Amino acid sequence: MFPGKEFLWCATIAAAGVLAVGCSDTQARSVAVVGSTSVQPFAELLAEEYLAKNPAESVEVQGGGSTAGLQAVVNSLADIGMCSRSLSDEESLEFEGTVIARDGLAMVVNPENTVKDLSTEQLRGLFSGVIKNWQEVGGPDCPVRPITREEGSGTRDSFVHLVMGKERISRRALTQESNGAVKELVKGDKAAVGYMSLGMVGSELKTVRVDGVEPTAANVLAGVYHLARPFLFITQGEIRPEARRFFDYVLSEEGQEALEREGLVRNQ
Shortest CA distance to 36 belongs to which of 3, 94, 101, 81? Predict the structure, then answer.
């Protein structure tokens, strides 16, 4: 069994409670998809398009985090888990992870911040607390306020693996539980820096180049933007026919085109 965090288990139970509400005969065939808040909005979009074409089906998508998604699958609380990081060797023995798309991990700042390019080493310094003022990296004279994700988040795990290495994220960093929450804080704070799914940045934030490379879907596809991670659907053993039909739709040409339109890189 993979290691789990107690509070994430509570999140899984909470999600399960939501999924269980009103579970009557008419809802018995609902497909439960639970996990990463980065994958969640894309899964919701796919579910909406799928149900528009298949009104007799039922798909419910819930967040909770990547680790919570794995826990939901292993405890039969979800047909499909959502994960926004690679599985560990131990997890790969227990689960089957299917890449549905790839996503860039965008470094975002307030539009008024003049910084345009940061190296991986500078990012490590910003988030570890070694770099305390934006002037140290060519920005304005103001303190750095890093925004990070919660423990158990696939986005955080990817950021730690790709950027932090053995360095720890500063305890002074503000912790948020979703891409949307990170977005709101950075949008309202000229001194903030955060990381989030490239496909969810929008026009209200400013992305910075990392090691001279723009965070774009094309650069993720070309392999030149190294802050990239997989979006996975997680299963364990055979899944119900209802879940398989939705799963196959996500991997279909139609489903992949929908993900591409939203800024992700399709499954190769």
Answer: 81
pLDDT tens, residue by residue, 73-87: 999 999 999 999 999
Q: Which amino acid, residue 29?
A: R
Residue 263: predicted pLDDT: 86
The Cα 110–Cα 113 span in angstroms is: 5
Whole-number Å distance between alpha carbons of 133 and 97: 41
The Cα-based distances of 247 to 33, 54, 65, 233, 260 in angstroms read 10, 13, 19, 8, 17
pTM recorded for the entire structure: 0.78
* Amino acid identity at 87: L
pLDDT interval class at 152 (50, 70, 90): confident
Beta strands 228-235 and 206-207: pairing type?
Answer: unpaired
Q: 148-175 burial, b for 16+ CB within 10 Å, e for fewer?
A: bbbebbbbbbbbbebbbeeeebeeebeb
pLDDT digit string (tens) for 120-141?
A: 999 999 999 999 999 999 999 9
Query: What's the token pair of residue 54?
Result: 């298949």
Distance CA 172, CA 161 (A): 20
Q: Which of 1-10, 39-48, 194-203 has the highest mean pLDDT?
A: 39-48
How far apart are alpha carbons 131 and 12 in whole angstroms?
36
Q: Is 54 helix (H, G, I), strand (E, B) or coil?
A: coil
Check residue 2 and give its pLDDT: 46
All domains in the chain, ordered by first residue: 6-102+229-266 (3.40.190.10), 103-222 (3.40.190.10)
Radius of gyration of the chain (CA): 19
